[in-house]
Target: Adenosylhomocysteinase
Amino acid sequence: MDYDIRDIGLAEKGRLRAEWAEREMPVLRTIKERFAKEKPLEGIKLAGCLHITAETANLAHTLAAAGADLTLCASNPLSTQDDIAAHLVESGIPIFAIKDEDEKTYFDHMSATVDTGPQITMDDGADVVAMLHKDKTHLLKDVIGGMEETTTGVIRLKALHGEGKLAYPIVAVNDSQTKHMFDNRYGTGQSSLDGIIRATNLLITGKTVVTIGYGWCGKGFAMRAKGMGAHTIVCEVDPVKALEAVMDGHQVMSMDEACKLGDIFLTVTGGMKAVDGKHFENMKDGAVVANSGHFNIEINVKALEEMSEAKREVRDFVDEYTLEDGRKVFLLAQGRLINLGAAEGHPPSVMDMSFANQALAGEYIMKNHSKLDPGVYTLPEAVDTDIASIKLGAMGMSYDVLTKEQDVYLNSWEVGT
Model:
């Protein structure tokens, strides 16, 4: 088996961490038990580009139980947990991922994964899809479908499809409610703060925390920061989302204003240069800047480097930039995903639902790919409902069911006041 990881000797530590995460993933466990009996992906080559974490290990085991011939690489140079990579290799799953790999190694690993000739792709940011459509088009003929995990990736896929170039159907797992409403809001909210605190050991209470972007991820982070006693500011380009942030109790202003006030900044926009050179010029001495958007282009790191006289690493994942006037700006995790660079990513109980959607999307593709034209699809609402139902049951919660009379009323027009 071909693979490239840091140290196979870390496998036992990774196995224990994967087992710990599995305790909080009852939905995926239920799916795995069924998949082990039915083998819906028997013999299918599946190439995945995901964060190699303890939670991802449980998804990998679920897909392997379904019969998939699975190969994985990292979807971010800093997000790999080396012990998990070792555990998966020892389990018989080829992994091409090393924490803090350089950019060349990152793309070499992705290339090795794609070269396995996948029939199904599984992406976290659409990098595998992009590589297939730009550099390895000869492999497209064998691909029957794919899955995409992130908001950023879905945006890229829709752009590719809009140009008429997307070669196969892809399920936008991110668009399922049991993914984006929970993973993005509660997962990103907690794990981003976790990453900032682990990297800096700063007290959040009393700090002015600026959230740049108020989608589901921004909502979760701003809510958690406010709950920890921060003075919260939100920056947005969408007036409707900006208004929502006001109603949620946050100050709202332009980044040109907020850059002068913030102690801690987090970008979650999906766009580029949300923090730019002009913002660094006006930041307080000691400002901390981090990113939880998928790619590291949300912070203009190049501009920061060009306007700095000195740079040094003062803590793990904390780079101190000294500007010409002596002010210092601290950049976390090189501007890459702070929650996976400096911490462990989303808690397993949240990824339980996200990865349940991934696993079921693979099954959906197998059953329906012959009927699907190239395009971006959402899983049926019934899948969302099933995942939520299993999750509630595992939490010891119950919910009401409509009577036949109530159901008829809600789906008819005849009965009025």
User: Anything to note?
Assistant: Residues 187-341 form a domain with the Rossmann fold fold (CATH 3.40.50.720). DSSP finds 17 helices and 15 strands in the chain. The chain has a mean pLDDT of 96.
